[in-house]
Design brief:
The structure is a single chain. With 155 residues, the chain is mainly beta. It has a domain of 96 residues. The chain contains 2 helices and 13 strands, in the order ααβββββββββββββ. Strands 1, 2, 3, 4, 5, 6, 7, 8, 9, 10, 11, 12 and 13 form a 13-stranded parallel sheet that branches.
């Protein structure tokens, strides 16, 4: 026999917690946050769709461009140009993924990817280049190693 009389009583069960929807929150849909920005990792710089930047962007974090950037971008991480993003700049990054428009020379240490909705006008230098069906590319591509990456062997 229990302390309060009934030894077989069980504590009341908590109501089940509803599963969180997989789609973006309603506030994100209302503000017009693109899917690429909504899925961004913490520590990612997002240049929103109504933002214009003219000048130089440097840093050590991922950058997502949904707005407009003119000038130069030099980052040690990944650059993603969203479907509505426009970049008119010289770009150096670890990886460059273009879903919108990029005009300028690009150099990536890992890869450049132009997705089906992407348009890239300029010269590319990267060890891996991916151009999806439907993408637009105008320029030259160089998939050789950078000059400072080559090892000199003395005999």
């Amino acid at each position: 026999m229990g302390i309060f009389g009934n030894s077989e009583s069980k504590p009341p069960e908590a109501p089940p917690v509803p599963a969180r929807p997989a789609s973006p929150a309603p506030a994100e849909k209302e503000r017009g946050v693109p899917a690429t920005a909504a899925a961004a990792k913490p520590g990612t710089c997002i240049i929103a769709s109504k933002t214009v930047i003219k000048g130089e962007i440097t840093g050590d974090e991922d950058v997502i461009v949904e707005g407009n950037v003119e000038g130069q971008i030099r980052i040690t991480r990944d650059l993603r140009v969203g479907a509505n993003g426009v970049v008119k700049a010289t770009v150096e990054a670890q990886s460059i993924i273009v879903s919108g428009e990029l005009v300028g020379d690009c150099q990536a240490s890992v890869r450049v990817e132009i997705q089906a909705t992407g348009r890239l006008t300029g010269n590319l230098r990267a060890p891996k280049i991916v151009i999806a069906e439907g993408a637009m590319f105008r320029g030259n591509s160089d998939m050789s190693a950078r000059k400072d990456d080559k090892k000199v062997v003395a005999l």
